[in-house]
User: Fold this.
Amino acid sequence: ITTFAHLPYVHCLANESEDVEKYDIAILGAPFDTGVTARPGARFGPTGVRQGGIRIGAEFSWNVYTGRNAFLEGFRVVDCGDAPLTFLDNTIALKQLDKAHKVISGRKANHTGYTVPRIITLGGDHTTTLPALRSTYHHWGAVSVIHFDSHIDTWDPEVLGGGLSHYAGVNHGTFLHIAHEEGLIKNTSIHAGIRAPMANKKYDLKNDKACGFSILTARDLDKFGTQGIIDKLKERVAGSKVYISVDIDVLDPSYAPATGTAEVGGWTTRELLTILDGLDGIELIGADVVEVAPIYDNPGETTVLAAAEVVHSLIALMAATPVNALS
Amino acid sequence: ITTFAHLPYVHCLANESEDVEKYDIAILGAPFDTGVTARPGARFGPTGVRQGGIRIGAEFSWNVYTGRNAFLEGFRVVDCGDAPLTFLDNTIALKQLDKAHKVISGRKANHTGYTVPRIITLGGDHTTTLPALRSTYHHWGAVSVIHFDSHIDTWDPEVLGGGLSHYAGVNHGTFLHIAHEEGLIKNTSIHAGIRAPMANKKYDLKNDKACGFSILTARDLDKFGTQGIIDKLKERVAGSKVYISVDIDVLDPSYAPATGTAEVGGWTTRELLTILDGLDGIELIGADVVEVAPIYDNPGETTVLAAAEVVHSLIALMAATPVNALS
Amino acid sequence: ITTFAHLPYVHCLANESEDVEKYDIAILGAPFDTGVTARPGARFGPTGVRQGGIRIGAEFSWNVYTGRNAFLEGFRVVDCGDAPLTFLDNTIALKQLDKAHKVISGRKANHTGYTVPRIITLGGDHTTTLPALRSTYHHWGAVSVIHFDSHIDTWDPEVLGGGLSHYAGVNHGTFLHIAHEEGLIKNTSIHAGIRAPMANKKYDLKNDKACGFSILTARDLDKFGTQGIIDKLKERVAGSKVYISVDIDVLDPSYAPATGTAEVGGWTTRELLTILDGLDGIELIGADVVEVAPIYDNPGETTVLAAAEVVHSLIALMAATPVNALS
Amino acid sequence: ITTFAHLPYVHCLANESEDVEKYDIAILGAPFDTGVTARPGARFGPTGVRQGGIRIGAEFSWNVYTGRNAFLEGFRVVDCGDAPLTFLDNTIALKQLDKAHKVISGRKANHTGYTVPRIITLGGDHTTTLPALRSTYHHWGAVSVIHFDSHIDTWDPEVLGGGLSHYAGVNHGTFLHIAHEEGLIKNTSIHAGIRAPMANKKYDLKNDKACGFSILTARDLDKFGTQGIIDKLKERVAGSKVYISVDIDVLDPSYAPATGTAEVGGWTTRELLTILDGLDGIELIGADVVEVAPIYDNPGETTVLAAAEVVHSLIALMAATPVNALS
Amino acid sequence: ITTFAHLPYVHCLANESEDVEKYDIAILGAPFDTGVTARPGARFGPTGVRQGGIRIGAEFSWNVYTGRNAFLEGFRVVDCGDAPLTFLDNTIALKQLDKAHKVISGRKANHTGYTVPRIITLGGDHTTTLPALRSTYHHWGAVSVIHFDSHIDTWDPEVLGGGLSHYAGVNHGTFLHIAHEEGLIKNTSIHAGIRAPMANKKYDLKNDKACGFSILTARDLDKFGTQGIIDKLKERVAGSKVYISVDIDVLDPSYAPATGTAEVGGWTTRELLTILDGLDGIELIGADVVEVAPIYDNPGETTVLAAAEVVHSLIALMAATPVNALS
Amino acid sequence: ITTFAHLPYVHCLANESEDVEKYDIAILGAPFDTGVTARPGARFGPTGVRQGGIRIGAEFSWNVYTGRNAFLEGFRVVDCGDAPLTFLDNTIALKQLDKAHKVISGRKANHTGYTVPRIITLGGDHTTTLPALRSTYHHWGAVSVIHFDSHIDTWDPEVLGGGLSHYAGVNHGTFLHIAHEEGLIKNTSIHAGIRAPMANKKYDLKNDKACGFSILTARDLDKFGTQGIIDKLKERVAGSKVYISVDIDVLDPSYAPATGTAEVGGWTTRELLTILDGLDGIELIGADVVEVAPIYDNPGETTVLAAAEVVHSLIALMAATPVNALS
Ligand SMILES: [Mn+2]
Ligand SMILES: [Mn+2]
Ligand SMILES: [Mn+2]
Ligand SMILES: [Mn+2]
Ligand SMILES: [Mn+2]
Ligand SMILES: [Mn+2]
Ligand SMILES: [Mn+2]
Ligand SMILES: [Mn+2]
Ligand SMILES: [Mn+2]
Ligand SMILES: [Mn+2]
Ligand SMILES: [Mn+2]
Ligand SMILES: [Mn+2]
Assistant:
């Protein structure tokens, strides 16, 4: 019975009327991958990341870099298991995930000075970020997104998939466009690690900017160093609540082979974790790690080990800076 | 540039008005796997089976058991490549596949005494059999299906997936039910190799029978021997045109690990090929090999080698017995 | 949060004084592999077998061969998770496992006419059978063991490991000798599938017989057929309570590569499951599947799929024939 | 420092004038694979088979079927390591291997009543059998070959490769033709397990017969049973000295995925070992196991475990029946 | 039917007298690996690199770093499939490859202001560069080679292999020596990424220099940075036509495990692609990516993804700077 | 018969009274992994590292960075094979390893001006360093340890494992604590590459310091560069004899997936080798490479290639600076 980092399993997804143990930070699996355009398999992401996290545990987590133990900062971190999602109809599945987020974030937090529990989603393909942003909007209003990815994911549904049908237009390459249209995100969002090609410079970049994003490419890291990247990210989102979405393909395939649309020339795990830890102090109200598809992993579990440590850093960022919901 | 068994590549999918090289038996890839309920990956099936077939070639195919070379019986066998199918909307994808079958089977055959080309589909998940049966119906009317599978695949869409939405009800476990409802198959169809569990004996078996099927289980082979199985299959479909659908999971996972819903306790490749070769003489008007998901294969390519040899046997059955379409 | 076959997770291992949900048949993981002499890795066996069982579920388990659904025969089957076992000291670990068995079998059963819950252990290396037999002895007295294995596992601790130290003498090749010495098993026990070599014919076989065993080799199946094997097994244990221990290496490495001391020339999964299902009617009071080491498995999970189906058959045997404990 | 079955390593390949420890049966690695037409990798065969044999050892080898320990029958079995072979020029490499056989078989045997040591070669691709047959010819004259393979390997160098150049004509599909032309084998040789296709029935079979072979196909086993196959093999070679060559592709790819030209529909390991053990009594003067290419093996080492056990059976056949060289 | 980056397949290898569709840049597979000294498998390189390139396509290739789409710069890029090469005689195979280059580069280019098509070869072992250089010599005279590799590959045939025979001397470690002797390359060539050991400092380096090369080691990158490396490469080849040969083992085995003679301590993909893109402006008249052996790749296809992106960058360099042949 | 880098195999482990060939630097395998707390498998480390080293050889080892050939500096380097170690009782096994070190280092060196042979141990889990340090203490007294690892490994046996039993307290996380208590190491030791979490900052770090260690973290490399790390290491151990222990998990899992307790965010192979080569000049009297568990390696052998090159660098450090034992 594997939970992330041996966290207590709480049946957070029980009927809203039913009482469950209280919590502050909730891990939620979103086993979904029928919104992808290339290699499927992210439906096994939550199981994979939990497997990658079996070597992490509250009693042995004093961090040599930050000097803190994310699990012992006064917040109760729990694993809520996986949202029940169908693989047979995306429309239904996303509604099921909306519901799961609503139920989990709708319970009263465990910590006294902090009212709404925060959620870290384990994808699933990147489409699963959309229900998460709908949920954070409900409690905190529009947020700035720090989006680690090799792809921009703001493509217009009319362009990517939508030519076929409305159904096809909601996918892992368009969800940020839709989030923008639904008013869930602010114009101070930012991509980091971008390197995948685009269809059309003029249109894609203009559209991306219209969705509220600026861009840091993968090779920008060679220009600015990790500290430079940290500074630029913090500057961009200064003054707003922040949602961090980590598409594991921001890492190079050497570090994260187990993903659907791997792009070579990416960041190393040491670089990504240094950057994440450097974001200390931002008001992080939600986060996710998505696009982990363990069936493509190395026998040594290279990818899921990296993904689990990313989740660990995200928990630490939340634990370092409590955030109250809109009253 | 890999084609199955180094067959000539013909652009059969060109616009119907465009002339292409003639053919009698056409290999068609159907890279589709968004109709599955478990492990995805069959979208890479056509590529995998072609890879498994690179050691087969017309100039070196005199068969030690049948004493014949399937490629030199007077029929032109070609590879048409893959149908262009979207992964983002099943409804659209199945229409795209209907179209592909229509175009390919709609051209005039190469052989003078035999008017309609026959198609062997490389799946893709089992849903891809539905467009194939629609196509054979158009040319030959309702057919008897010999269905090699560990699963019955006649589940009612209302039961398997359909509770969620109509969209969800069309999938790799219901396609035979739908085929029956559309009148594409006869009441003299038969399953072989069945061993997967059912939801409800009474309902499932009654429904299966209503769809036109009788059942041979995997362990029936131990009772009757390969010759006994051959006799029962031939007897069941006697007098009708036949479509053979081979779900690779009819083989034991030891022989075919690379599939989405593997069931242990299956047949060996030697058993399956002996049975297929024994069906010599039936009027085979269409066939497929489906549910091959190469990402789960062994380094030695165990599954795709087996799947390719099954395709080889299917070509041999077609080449041995020409069949004319309805006039 | 993966349990075997999606069974409810019950915290059976809670303190004896604490009330938990009732159950009749309990799955217990025993993640232990420091008693092996060759390739380690069985500590991940319980996780692996549960992973292999995710496609099994109560609502879809009507068996085409037996005509029954093992989960719907009136007994409550649950998953108790894993016993907490140290990897650093075998003596302590086996005591921890003794304790786990005692606690789990010590609770009152759920079913009214049947007092003691029965346990199916997921190993772990074969040493984990020893605590299981101590537990069944406590409730049912000495039992006949049907031992499916390529190895006899009755070696004298003085011979296998014991020359080094007493500590070393308790291992996966000697546990049946120790069980015999502790009086836990009857002289009507039997091995099935034996093919591994021995050190010394005279001594080994004499010692094995003294431990209460007769032998059916792997190739005996070719001589007697599955029905012959079933008859001989039933005859041998007639009139006694029975414990079934399945070392997954009874299967050929083609079917179960993921094990520590694989021996070629073994049985197929179809053969093993036919034999297990044929044992219907015996009074089965405990069982296990051991020596599954998933790190050696094929990408398609060949071994854990087979192991999960063996567990399924063992549950069915228990569900078919309730047994009361000694009063 | 891994030797086959922990046998003593003897530097048999030292200069002929140099004295080395005596032996009766010698294991010799032939790491060579530039004579193949498909997937290379057999150059790692000797290392792989030794790795597969690490669980075998003289002190623990009493066989449950034969009732004997092949290592304790009075003959000294040793491992001579690998012949030094270049990968850059086949002509040179085969001469190097001729030399290695000459040196190893040229020393005086250890056993008093038996003058010439016998060699079991670990290939290497099948071309490595040619130098072995030259060596046995030197000591015992022309022999009958029992050739386990899915391919006949008697193709005419003019047809397979030779159209290009003489150099190309010496390969793993023509070596038996060449052996016949050099007069090394008798007209009472036999293939077993054949199933691969041929180029041309008339020519290939006529040529095969001219080379001295009759054929048992893979499916003949279903017709005659293992005992029937044993009887036919013994009958064919009755009265002559015998060389056994086992191309590992005689096994089904499920049992031996790690080979260059795998053919589905093959034998199981249980079947092959039963047949080999049944050949007890023949005068076996040389043997080999070839075409093992470990880079394609399963993580659980399925193929090399099987290959090692085949070597074990070959040693047992030699140990059971000493043979004197021509005087 | 997989071509590189979904490029049109043109039958460029048709008889010279036969007309085919016109092209400017041609991808050519050279499936050859019998010139290697270590792990074979590069014969599957062309298929592997094409597989790695299936996510690349002209309609979605606007590059975020260069701001250009290599496929839309006015040149027609096509895939010519694989040259037919025998595995049984290197001498013949290299002649077959000479012929293929001659035919493909001998056709009139599609672009009006630019007469000779340029070829990017997908190896195959590094020996395949030799026929490519013979072909570029014919059209452009002697060229400077930028050789990315961990090995120098200028060994004297007399030293590496040639001691055995002339045949053995032509291999993947000597081809640059031979190219020098044939006068195909200029004395302004340069290696980059060198780190493999040498036999003898004095001789090897002197000989290397005599062949026209200077050296940048792998760790030189730490000293000079990517821009420093770019500057040194451009300076070295200034004023001459350039051929770029990328042995994939220039990357660290973490980034490119699937190669025959992997050397640890190499470059990352981000570093290599930054350097390649920085060479913008050179007159590139031919290029290759060699030594990709997919059988050693990770399940996530780490190596072939990297190799495909290298090919993409090479196409971009060609598309950026047209070059006319000698008149 | 594979030795590291084709070194001569010497039977160094023969009875002390028996004469064997002389040597100066000895490779010793320590196949032991029952002291681990997570993924087992390091018992196959020695075989794996030797396999990784087959491409290294004395006749081809002129290093492009150091300008030297470690095998031709006047010292005789040999492979002693593996110490015979039981897997069934750690206490016994460590005594067996003590004995092996004593025997191998107890023979007279081959080199005239240098009396005691030095040993490089191939682990095995990290516990195997303890017998090595006992052995170096005997000849050279207490030493400074340079410990490359992601973990500190100085945990108190009472804390890590010892709560259970004394037996459990001796393991791969406590061996440096025990070495300190036995007086084997000096207070000028240092860790490099640390990044794994700790249980308790105050206690763990105080205890670590008390054991004689200072710490360089993995990310310190980004701060100081490789030259900075080299300087700090040399400064710390200045004036003492040095033992280098390389836990392969100091590398990132992308470079060394095949280990038991992989920690993401580690060093690259290029960084580690640059640092090791930079230590040139220290008085290195013993070294090891541990925690290599090949069963988790990539098909391309990523980890063992890296581990073998680390061994190569360690040999070079020893060959560059001879050290005399205490008289
Ligand atoms: Mn992405
Ligand atoms: Mn994304
Ligand atoms: Mn099926
Ligand atoms: Mn099906
Ligand atoms: Mn066993
Ligand atoms: Mn056992
Ligand atoms: Mn063969
Ligand atoms: Mn052969
Ligand atoms: Mn190279
Ligand atoms: Mn090269
Ligand atoms: Mn460590
Ligand atoms: Mn350590």
In short: The longest helix of chain A spans residues 302-320. Residues D 149-151, 247, 249, 261, 291 surround manganese (II) ion (ligand 7) (CB under 6 Å).
